Amino acid sequence: MHLAAMAYNLKKYLKFTQKLAKTKEKALVLIFFKIRGLQNVIIFNLRQPTFM
User: Fold this and answer.
1) pTM for the predicted model, two decimal places
2) Dist CA 5 CA 1 (whole Å)
3) Over 70: is that where the pLDDT of 1 sits?
């Protein structure tokens, strides 16, 4: 009985850590794209000539 309970808990733990890794990956991708977009806006603004 103990072995079955340990296997069950291990299965749940592994599933939890995999979800956590996927969540962190999504957060990193989101941050990366936000930084990338901000860089594009800055570069676009620097390339535009200002006429006064």
Assistant:
1) 0.52
2) 6
3) no
The token duo for 12 is 């749940």
- φ/ψ region of 43 (left if φ > 0, alpha if ψ in -120 to 50, else beta) reads alpha
Q: How far is CA 40 from the centre of its chain?
A: 20
Which of these, 9, 11, 16, lies nearest to 1 by C-alpha position? 9
Dihedral pair phi/psi, residue 14, rounded to 5°: -65, -40
Q: Is 48 left (phi over 0), alpha (psi -120 to 50) or beta?
A: beta
Helix (H, G, I), strand (E, B) or coil at 52: coil
